[in-house]
Amino acid sequence: MALVLVGGASVATAGWVTYDAWSTRQAWDASPDAQALALQAAEPTPIWLPAATPGPLSADIRPLPTTAPTPLLSAAARPAPPPASPTPEVRAEDMKLEAADFRFLDPPEPGAHARLAISVVNHGPTTSGKVLLGVPAKWFEGYSIIGTGPAVSDDRTDDDGLRTFSFPPILSGATASYELHVTALGEGTTAPPVKALLGNGDLIGEIGKPSVLAPTPRPGPVMSLDIPKLKLKSGVVQTTWEPPPFAIGQIKASANVSLGNTVLIGHLSGAAGNVFAHLDELKPGDEITAVSRGLPYGFVVSRVFESTNDDAAPIEPADDGRLTLMTCSGVWNPFTHDYSKRLWVIAEAPDQAAVTIANANATATAEATAGVAATATALALDPPTTPTPVPTPFAGEPSLAGGIGNTRADLEKAYGHATGETSGKLVVFRAASREVHVLFTPDPPRGALLSIVISPSLSFDAAVREARKLFPKDTTPRAAAPEGNPRFVVERFTSPTLEQALGTADFTVIYPRDDKGAITGIIVGLGDDIDALLQQARK
């Protein structure tokens, strides 16, 4: 009977623990914090521009009206329009929202100056009424308004949370640019969806995802973490120590990414969360990408080890850029409510990780080799001649997984084994719905040209996001903006790490277009000869 009672109690306790973890997870997934972290992890990569190259301002920046924002009447509550005037009225369908973009004038970080701009054209027979720029009011939780260009006459927020700014009318046949200038309060770089409306509330047009342009940012705190081996992609929150349930936390006192020891922590199991439940599956050589202020930083796992639960050495400051990931391990103590050990994963920049892994392998081999002392004695009696120095080949991967300049082993890891070759000796990989053609350098083989066939076609912004996944981590643009024609769009970049790997720092990205202007492929290759790159990609 006692055994039955003990067994029943154990089952009940286990059931309660499981239910507690499940219910806590459900509550977390439904919380605003979880939704904000999900958006943070999915934040698009901006189009990087050289520093200090803002677009021209359409007008002087003017402060907002001094009156506080007032509610905008819903359509049902609006007063009836005045009697028809003999002058032709400009309707919403006579207007067009031509473009919208969100541009940081300073490198993205708290305090940076940014500009949201739209361009509207009036095809109507006469001057339009006032034009409203609509932005979700919630977006302003991350930004403080500096002013507008030109001045606005009204600033209102309706019951649906849409904040509108009333700009001057547009002459018949003219195009006007309207700008909203803000200061960033946080680390995000996401543009808001925008609407252009007439003063009566009729919709001219809307753009759900305006392009984001920015100068290359300085390293900041980690905003999201991607570990392909674990199929884990999560937003990251700043914390003094204990992270929220089911979330990764960066210790606030640790370094900004790439500037020292950046420490990331997460729970192992239970109601506190399990975001790092499979951290022990990581091995040296596995890749981790940390995103800060929209810019991805690539790291490679170099060490995995356990220590006691009071060992603080792994979180001490360091001079070299690294990620230190930590979770609990060992045995759970119900009296102290703690595990006996900590699991640590150290990830370094790819070139440094290659050195660390090579040194660890060499040490392990030396310790396992018998007769080391005898060999050392023999060498002392008959020392070898000094060999001719040979330049050390570049080690590691200059780009993100599957990117330009990476080894064939890395590309096979990213896309699977090759399925054949083209007539021009480009190696063919097939990954998901994509076909990737790669031109490799001679021994050691590294990807000097990558041609991705896209089907179905993508918008330019979506293709840019895909191309950025192939770039070296230290990529900087060589032109202020993309160039091109109806056949293709071109971007030009440079990377010191790529020069170390392939001997050439400059590379070009070509986006072929179809008849409708959609992007049908991505070609990333060395140099600036566009015709030669296109010819190579077609072989």
The end-to-end span amounts to: 79 Å
| Nearest-integer average pLDDT | 85
Query: What is the number of beta strands?
Result: 29
The helical percent reads 10-25%
The largest sheet, given as strand count, sense and whether it forms a barrel, is: 9 strands, antiparallel
Percent range for β-strand residues: 35-45%
Q: What's the Cα radius of gyration?
A: 29 Å
Low-confidence stretches: 68-77
Broad shape: globular
Structural description of this entry:
The protein is an alpha+beta fold and 539 residues long. It has helices at residues 2-29, 32-41, 350-368, 372-381, 408-415, 460-468, 496-502, 530-538, and strands spanning 47-49, 70-72, 95-104, 113-122, 131-136, 143-149, 154-158, 162-167, 175-184, 194-198, 203-207, 211-215, 224-227, 232-239, 248-251, 261-265, 287-292, 295-308, 322-333, 338-348, 420-421, 427-431, 434-440, 447-458, 476-477, 483-484, 488-494, 506-512, 519-526. Strands 21, 22, 23, 24, 25, 26, 27, 28 and 29 form a nine-stranded antiparallel beta sheet that branches. Strands 13-14-15-16-19-20-18-17 form an eight-stranded mixed β-barrel. Strands 1-12-3-4-9-6 form a six-stranded mixed beta sheet, with no helix packed on it. β7 (154-158) and β8 (162-167) form a beta hairpin. It is globular, with a radius of gyration of 29 Å. The termini are far apart. 35% of the residues are buried.
